[in-house]
Amino acid sequence: AAGGAGHSRGGCAVTQITIAMAKGRLAEQTMELMEALGIDVSPLKEKSRKLVFESGDGRFRYIMVKPSDVPTYVDHGVADVGIVGKDTLMEENRPLYEMLDLGFGKCRICVCGYAEQEPLKKAHIRVATKYTGIAGQVFATRGSSIEIIKLNGSVELGPVIGLSDVILDIVESGATLRANGLSVIEEICTCSARLVVNRVSLKTKETAIRPFIDGMRREVERRKELGL
Ligand code: PRP
Question: Which atom of ligand 1 is nearest to the CA of 107?
Fold first, then answer.
């Protein structure tokens, strides 16, 4: 699919771009941004069990997948473009071109827990997280011995139920932390949605992908100027 694949509509060849989109918290704003560019995402909104969708004009093909799988599809070149959070890109660490900060889905990667217990001062720290790769890097150079416990969701349960001393997770509004009596102990970095491109696709489908990226960039900048 990364080989400049085209398909024919009304006699003229159209270079189709396959976009891998992250299900979940980024999906709605991703679709909204594409719509603002006049890209037809209506097939994605139909209630169905289908996994592959195509825009009405055939210019785009969409797959909607788990966030952590977006970099995998793009790295393998079966999707030319991906839209996914920086947190996921850091965790998956694939050799993709990160072309654009889309400016939505802003959150922070933080170490959280019961701050008053000073859990980071312990000699042995248990860290519950979805982001085992990032956690490994963050804690690698610290003096304490570290145990990383992989969870797939509801990570805040870790300290609450005594599975871990801290969590490393994304914090958006902070509501989940507050609701569970936890707080941010250390902020690692900020994150937002990013546009990534397969390295081969950028060359072989340049005439289709460049205008798409440029359109996205203009719209993102327009929104930034308007403070949206
Ligand atoms: C994320 C994250 C936190 C929460 C943070 O989980 O892991 O639990 O959102 O958001 P907040 O600061 O606005 O409360 P998500 O909702 O994606 O679901 P999950 O627990 O199944 O991973």
Answer: 12
Q: What are the Cα distances from residue 151, in Å, to 2, 114, 127, 130, 218?
A: 34, 19, 10, 5, 38
**Amino acid letter, residue 197:** V
Does ligand 1 lie within 6 Å of residue 28's CB atom?
Answer: no
pLDDT < 70: residue spans in the chain: 1-12
pTM: 0.93
CB 69 within 8 A of CB 21: no
- In this prediction, residue 24 carries a pLDDT of 94
pLDDT in tens, 129-138: 999 999 999 9
Is the C-beta atom of 156 inside 6 A of ligand 1?
A: yes
154 Cβ inside 6 Å of ligand 1: yes
Asked whether 165 lines ligand 1 (CB < 6 A), one says no
- Best probe residue, ligand 1, of 104, 155, 170 (max atoms within 8 Å of C-beta): 170
The protein residue with its alpha carbon nearest to ligand 1, atom 17, reads 25
Render pLDDT for 21-74 as a digit per residue (tens, 0 to 9): 999 999 999 999 999 999 999 999 988 889 999 999 999 999 999 999 999 999
What separation, in Å, do the N-terminal and C-terminal C-alpha atoms of the chain show? Answer: 35
